Amino acid sequence: MFTKQRYARLKWACRRGMLELDVIFMPFVDEGFNDLTEADKVIFESLLTSDDPDLYAWLMGHQPCDNADYKRLIDHILSRVKV
Asked: Taking each helix axis from N to C terminus, what angle separates 52-60 and 68-80, rounded to the nearest 10 degrees?
């Protein structure tokens, strides 16, 4: 279960310091995160532990993501957030 404190930490983790990632993650966590299943929320939390260059490459389609759960969630995020 995502408590208010855990959600706040997650939201803080979405602030990546790379504008391209911020404009994807921040709107998603505000508008789409609560629509995820509990399992997908945990996967999203885990996804945010990835390095910024990897996240950027996966989100921009420069490099395939080998983790099937991450790939599915990335596709979902990109379908929800318009950049």
From this structure: 60
